[in-house]
Design brief:
The complex is a heterodimer. Chain A is an alpha+beta fold. Chain A has 12 helices and 14 strands. The longest helix of chain A has 22 residues. The radius of gyration of chain A is 19 Å and the shape is globular. The longest helix of chain B has 28 residues. Chain B is about 25% helix and about 25% strand. The radius of gyration of chain B is 28 Å and the shape is globular. The chains are: A alpha+beta, B alpha+beta.
Amino acid sequence: MALYKLKEFHAPKNMQEAINILGKSQEAEILVLAGGTFLHGLEARGLLSDVEELVDIRKAGLDAIRDDDRGLLIGATVTFSQIQTLPSVQRTPWLAGLSDALAYPPVQIRNTATIGGCVSASCPFFDVPTALLALGATVMVKGGEAGERQLALPDFLAGLFVNSLEPGELVTAVAIPKCPGNGASAFIKLEGNANDLAIVNAAAYLSVDSQKTCTEAYVALGGGVAETAVLSDAARQILIGSKLDAATLQTASEAVTADISPMSDHRASAEYRGAVAKVIVRRTLERAIARLA
Amino acid sequence: MSQLNVVGQSLERPDAYDKVTGGKGYPVNVKLPGMLHAKMLRSPYAHARIVSIDASRAERLPGVKAVLLPKDVPQIKFCPVFFVPVQAPSMVLDFDVMNGERVRYVGQPVAAVAAITADIAEAAIDLIDVEYEELPAVFTPEEAMAEGAPQLHDEAPNNIAKTPFFEYGDLEKGFAEADFIFEGTYETQRVHTCYLEPRVCVVDMDRQDNVTIHVTTQHLFGTREKLAFALGIPETKVKVVKSPYIGGGFGGKLELTAMEPVAALLSKKCGRPVRLEQTRQEDFITTTRNPIKVYLKTGVKKDGTFTARYAKSILDCGAHATHGSEVIMVHGAFGLFFNYHAPHQKWEGYTVYTNNMIGGGYRGYGAPQGSFAVESQIDEICTKLNLDPIAMRLQNARKQGEPHPFNPAFTLATYGLADCLREGAAKIGWEKARRRDKGSSGAKKRGIGLAVHPVWVSGCMGFPDIYEHSGAIVKINRDGTADLATASMDIGSGQIATLTQIAAEALGLPAGAVRMSSAGDTDNLPFDAPTHASRVTYSSGNAVKEAALSAKKRLLEVAGSMLEVSPADLEVSDGKVSVRGTPSKTLSVAEIAQRAESPFVQMTAQGPQPTVMEEKGTIIGLSSLAPKSNPTPCAAQFVEVEVDTETGEVAVLHAVYAHDIGRAINPKAAEGQVEGGFQQGMGYALMEHIQFDPETGSCLTTDFLDYKMPTAVEMPRKIDSIFIETDEPTGPFGAKSLGECCVITPAPAIANAIHDAIGVRFTQLPITPEKILRGLGKI
């Protein structure tokens, strides 16, 4: 039991109503419920004792999905299970990394966890945000003083359990831009058992030209290698322009060390996380390459 | 052994349907009219003096009905362990329910609240103001034994609660005779049994001190004895209601904790029943398997024969000794020294207080910690001396017909270790796998490992002060079925199935004709020792068989009278009594029971028929007896693992587990025991670990996100259970035990397999991916 101070439970029927509630309650301790898995975890640990209002946006009409030439636009309350059913997620190598990440959580989580919730949590141990980072995702925000904003995911993830939302703002959707050419992505998670948050995870997106030269590369890491999931620019620089041979993959994997600062906790030491991050990145790159046409 | 009809069949467990449809028989589902809900306030400090407690703010919270403070609790010290008398001289009497002076671990209860809802009770405990004066705390036994360490109990200098030892032969002579001497230190961690149903009780205590309690317990009569003692009331004032089953125990519900007396005292204060359910966080810090550090030194001849063994074991019992004074004994006896022959042996055990959580019972009870040391070291010896690990173990093991190592009054009448090893090795392809190239390229290396547990128990006969006897009531009904009543608790491991099958076999009734009574309590059931120590199939099984035979005797007397033959000429099979050699003279059990329970004069269509007075009376059998022996089961475990040398992850690919259990009463249920035991043992080997903040002593692993145990995904795709049926003469239909043997050997078998795969020996559990990478020198 941890919601001692809860006074209001809002269930807005549309986005505007949700934004209005958030706008009015700027001084209150208010939290948005998009799927509830993260909130449940916080509640079980007694971390919601100051929350006064909850806004359940699951019926606020934020569950639209647009899948066209521009890419994917996924409403904030679309669940992991729903994303898994999208033909493009199931079939295109470009989105295979997202598909990998969605397959890790148990089905009970997939049926309720949402894309908006998982990015808003800004939890470095989650899987889907790492996969989204490698796909160049953008977070769509409405409400607050700005009215409407788009934030690149790296800018949105401000810190450990801290996002960049201003008071009154709500995540309404996540956009994944269309892959321009021959591209593929992959994701791998290292976990203690099948019911775990990541000890380390990694996602990679690679595209190549007709000569099999790498034209674009994104390498993302999560799981306690930094305060948020992060992109490795060092790895990217090594990969672009290369032939993606084994030696390059090894060098790129080792280069991620420059972009991470792993943490120690009772689950793993920083040393261990740092060491396996390189291994997981290399394996993720290999998996993505195997998916290239 | 004559033909068995019900024993040996994999019948559907009688409790299965109820459990998969919600399990209304669990204590957690008990609701009484007017019931209140309680919560306990727990100490945030590992060691502190309580300066003052002010509960006035809590008392004023609307919905709060009573606050319980230490001054309201009888200040009595005792041993809360169920299977020994409450003030057993062999145990340490240091436990109290709630004292107002001092807390010795993070989580020790200091006050409690009863309220109309659990949420209000939880809010209220936050309003109780406790002033503490922090004291220096100590978290390792070595520090606790050192000079100048904080002293936790006045009667235990240097924080040593108990120091048992065994010695025989001449140790120096034995080591002098050795060709090689092996030494090592092996460490195990704190783990939780992870039963699914939390500890919970619903208690009604009236002003005349009459107590009725529904509780998750492995022992009805132990709960009665310890709760009455804690409350300072006569034992028969307490009635413990038998739930049809509890949601797992594994040794984790084998002692009284503060929960039961606190709920009782709150109930008395409020005049209403009180329910107290622990959260998973609370359960994680209530009891645990004790961590033990074992130093083991073994002298061997070139051919692998043991000449001498010396061991020293240091057990961290936490803030109170409770089980720790008995676990150390079982560990020394059955974990270390009585499993193999050695002419010269010495063992010293230390049960040491620290400011950690209290230890408890957990399947294996000290043996897994010992087995990890012994079976790991044997592997080291075999590697160094190039000996065959199977032959070397058999060479040092006991043989069938030898005296029982712990109690010379018994013999090892049945002992199938060699068969376990032979059949297990064949199943996993041991010879071929040992010779296999481990693979010089690639990140993943495979290895195969073996561990055995040569001597274990079917009950605990031989240890001092332990309750052993069991009782049963068998009643034959007019429809030809029978009811069985015992105080033996089903804790999830199939006791209902096993005992009803034994009763049906003994009575000559068909499968499914015996039902375990779903009602009963300590007022109307005969005493039974706890469901622990691998004893129910053997000890309770023998009592059930005895009661059934007693009912059968009466059944045949009535049948003999009806058929006008001597009962000695009758036999029962499949619910029918017939005259031996004259199959046409047959009565159904139902007909006989109807005759026995019929009125004085039976009114029939042909008019009144007089009946025989000697045939009257319910056909019933009773028993209450101690077991005849303590036959040892034994086991050989083989595993194949794959080690990822880049990430340190270990996958268990295949497990083969061969047990000599005398007879499998219900083979499918037995397989379930083995697979569950392997799951717990594998978790112990690779991932499970209750961890604490080294500075504050607060638990860091209080849920299943932080406390990792193997899920279905991590379990090997293949577990082969092999049962060697040696037909134990003292067992019910030849049965011995199975409950614990199967949890003892997975850790050393997996450690040995990892060594086979990567050539690195691990002596500290759990063998996490991080330890593997350190062992490989990669970090």
